[in-house]
Specification:
The protein has one domain: Orthogonal Bundle (Cytochrome p450), CATH 1.10.630. A hairpin with an 8-residue loop joins strand 2 and strand 3. The two termini are about 25 Å apart. Helices cover about 40% and strands about 10% of the residues. By secondary structure, the protein is α+β, with helices and mostly antiparallel strands. It has helices at about 5-10, 60-70, 105-110, 115-120, 125-140, 145-150, 155-165, 170-180, 190-205, 215-225, 235-265, 265-275, 280-290, 325, 360-380, and strands at about 20, 35, 45-50, 55-60, 75, 300-305, 305-310, 310-315, 320, 340, 385, 395, 400-405, 410. Helix 13 crosses helix 15. It is built from 15 helices and 14 strands. It has a six-stranded mixed sheet with strand order 2-3-4-9-6-5. Strands 1-10 form a two-stranded antiparallel sheet. This is Cytochrome P450. Pfam families: p450. It comes from Rhodococcus tibetensis.
Length: about 400
């Protein structure tokens, strides 16, 4: 069997390469909105956001892509005390996800080259060295937990090396990072306390009140901040780095954990990875297509002009939820969309967004997830989940959602 063989042939070889997401317990999240009107006055369905605002729900792939790539759909005006949001509170205005043009382009252009595929490829050796240590620990456990021993520490340890954050600081800020990315609304004062701990920690790094490791991105950013016109302020550097401290850890971990969870219950896919590690990029891309990060896939936007979509017209000032999760399962673009089939051909998934707000850490996430899964398949070709999948506990929040343990055997 080679990677060029058609999907139909693979499905006929008796190993069941493809698997449906409906066969994986608890994989899909509960929805974070309330359906309101299946066909509103504009012709588009309406939903009610947790903030109480009505939003147009955009689900077709082409329509979602159009919204994501059109700069006339703004984010800035949603980040207000009374703004339309999935989050229980506002965020600092300088965060990249809250900025519109031209401010967004000025700040993101500053970091693009550092997060390019070529730049993050240099971290692959570090990923393998970290995996050496973690896999050795896993082998020595009486009741091995893949999540707690290997996966949980990988993204944060890679990221602190990349940024130049002392490893001994992890236990100080990381518990708060998890709370922030869950973004539960049960205890907003507690959520804010954790957010400001992380924010002030990153501020201290930028202002040199805490030490950084030489040669990391933080040092480079501080040295190069004047190359931007106007130069980046402390607040803007903190906003850039905060996105990395949170997203390149907790978000990567969430997708990596769910990818491993799926593969542990899909023997055909796991065997394909074991026997053909060169298939890993295709497997990872297909998993990225079907795995929502948390209970939402994008943040709301506000239309600054009238826009015609296939399903109807978006009027000026309308709140829009461009649902990338739904778009990634649009049957017109992805036939049998719930089938996890790594041999699909066609359009690219929208897991990392598109256009202005395309995730700056996409290449880093792909590299870490692919490297980790290939390495695990090589080390543990008979790896299996050692628990009833329905019994696993999950961290579940607005921004991230993942199992809290993965008991395994081999």
């Amino acid at each position: 069997m080679t990677i060029g063989i058609a999907t139909s042939a693979l499905l006929q070889d008796g190993r069941g390469i493809a698997v449906s997401v409906s066969d994986i317990p608890n994989l899909d999240p509960p929805i974070a909105y309330t359906p309101a009107n299946p066909q509103g006055p504009t012709g588009l369905p309406e939903i009610t956001l947790p903030s109480g605002h009505t939003a147009l729900h955009i689900t077709r792939y082409d329509d979602v892509l159009k919204v994501l790539t059109d700069p006339s759909f703004g984010r800035t005006d949603t980040n207000r005390e009374d703004g339309p949001s999935f989050l229980p509170t506002t965020m600092p205005p300088d965060l990249l996800l809250n900025l519109d043009a031209p401010d967004h382009g000025r700040m993101k252009g500053f970091v693009n080259s550092d997060y390019s595929p070529a730049s993050v490829e240099s971290l692959e050796d570090s990923v393998h060295r970290l995996l050496d240590r973690r896999i050795a620990l896993l082998r020595g456990q009486e009741n091995p937990d893949l999540f707690g021993t290997v996966l949980d520490r990988l993204p944060i340890e890679v990221n602190v090396r990349f940024l130049g954050i002392p490893e001994e600081d992890i236990d100080y800020f990381r518990p708060s990072s998890r709370v922030v990315q869950l973004a539960h609304d049960e205890d907003i004062p507690d959520l804010l306390e954790h957010f400001w701990l992380v924010y002030h920690y990153v501020t201290d790094l930028v202002q040199r009140k805490r030490p950084t490791e030489p040669g990391g991105l933080i040092d480079r950013f501080l040295s190069a901040r004047g190359e931007v016109n106007p130069p980046l302020s402390d607040e803007e550097l903190v906003a850039i780095l905060l996105g990395s401290v949170l997203g390149a850890d907790q978000n990567v971990l969430s997708v990596l954990t769910k990818a491993a969870y799926v593969l542990l219950q899909a023997p055909g896919l796991w065997n394909l990875l074991v026997e053909h590690p060169e298939s890993a990029p295709k497997i990872v891309e297909e998993l990225l297509r079907v795995l929502p990060l948390g209970t939402i896939s994008t943040f709301p936007r506000i239309a600054t002009r009238e826009v015609q979509l296939r399903g109807g017209v978006i009027p000026v000032d309308a709140v829009v939820y461009a649902d990338a999760f739904a778009a990634n399962r649009d049957p017109e673009v992805f036939p049998e969309p719930e089938l996890i089939d790594p041999f699909r051909n066609g359009k690219r998934h929208l897991q990392f967004g598109y256009g202005m707000h395309h995730c700056m850490g996409a290449s880093l996430a792909r590299m870490e997830i692919t490297t980790a899964l290939v390495r695990l398949a090589a080390e543990f070709p008979k790896l299996e989940l050692a628990a009833d999948p329905g019994s696993l506990q999950w961290d579940s929040g607005v921004i991230l959602r993942r199992p809290t343990s993965l008991p395994v055997q081999w």
